Amino acid sequence: MVFHREHLRLYLVTDRDLCARLGVIETVMQAVAGGVTMVQLRDKTATTAQRTDLAIALKHALRGTDVPFVINDDIDAAIAADADGAHIGQGDIAPAQARTLLGRDKILGLSCESVEMVEAADAALVDYLGLGPVFGTATKADHAQPVGFDGLARMVAASSLPTVAIGGLKADHIDSVRAANADGMAVVSAICGQSDPCAAARAFARAPSECAP
């Protein structure tokens, strides 16, 4: 999978509890049908074996869609499932070690919560940055202090790497994210927590729903 900046346009982060009604795979596939361009498989309570099994199933489901998927904070699962890559936080495995384990052909994303973290990110190791949180969010109880859109703009300006905004974002925030010059926005509850993930995803494109009934 060749990673492009455009893949970050609408980035879905999964949540097992919010996806419970349809299941993670069905929720993701409906969201992709609605316009999601990248997926991060996140489940902090699962084991590596459980993440690997789910990632393998997701990989098969996404085949032919050109939608990359990465695994949050589990390099072993990303390798075992041959995922498109991994996403790590500041307190997780070091980017240099993650890149060594993953290899050069895999995607590696890094969360940054401040301009200083953005400036410290090594473009030789990392493919994109997740910036925020823009707002506080219940899907990540231990999130850092929200940065708002002004903080987001300063973080985007501090790096030439592709960037995706995250943290409490909804479809109403599209213009503000674009004004901050981020390449895209990552969402959890705005899609996973909705009764119709396809229609929820299409709302971000501001397009009439063409989802299957």
From TrEMBL:
Checking HAMAP family in the record gives: TMP_synthase
The reaction(s) this protein catalyses: 2-(2-carboxy-4-methylthiazol-5-yl)ethyl phosphate + 4-amino-2-methyl-5-(diphosphooxymethyl)pyrimidine + 2 H(+) = thiamine phosphate + CO2 + diphosphate; 4-methyl-5-(2-phosphooxyethyl)-thiazole + 4-amino-2-methyl-5-(diphosphooxymethyl)pyrimidine + H(+) = thiamine phosphate + diphosphate; 2-[(2R,5Z)-2-carboxy-4-methylthiazol-5(2H)-ylidene]ethyl phosphate + 4-amino-2-methyl-5-(diphosphooxymethyl)pyrimidine + 2 H(+) = thiamine phosphate + CO2 + diphosphate
Lineage top rank: taxon? Bacteria
Keywords tagged on the record:
Magnesium, Metal-binding, Thiamine biosynthesis, Transferase
Cofactor(s), by name: Mg(2+)
State what protein this is by name.
Answer: Thiamine-phosphate synthase
Enzyme Commission numbers on file = 2.5.1.3
Q: Which Gene Ontology terms cover its molecular function?
A: magnesium ion binding; thiamine-phosphate diphosphorylase activity
In terms of Pfam families, this protein maps to: TMP-TENI
Q: What family does this chain come from, according to its entry?
A: Belongs to the thiamine-phosphate synthase family.
- Thiamine phosphate synthase/TenI domain residues are 10-191
Q: Which residues bind 2-[(2R,5Z)-2-carboxy-4-methylthiazol-5(2H)-ylidene]ethyl phosphate?
A: T137, A138, T139, G168, V188, S189
Q: What organism is this sequence from? A: Pseudosulfitobacter pseudonitzschiae
Per its UniProt record, what NCBIfam families does this chain match? Answer: thiE (TIGR00693)
Q: Which InterPro entries match?
A: Aldolase_TIM, ThiamineP_synth_sf, ThiamineP_synth_TenI, TMP_synthase
Q: Which GO terms describe its cellular component?
A: cytoplasm
Q: What does this protein do?
A: Condenses 4-methyl-5-(beta-hydroxyethyl)thiazole monophosphate (THZ-P) and 2-methyl-4-amino-5-hydroxymethyl pyrimidine pyrophosphate (HMP-PP) to form thiamine monophosphate (TMP).
For binding 4-amino-2-methyl-5-(diphosphooxymethyl)pyrimidine, which residues are annotated in this chain's numbering?
Q40, L41, R42, D43, K44, N72, S111, K140
The note on the cofactor says: Binds 1 Mg(2+) ion per subunit.
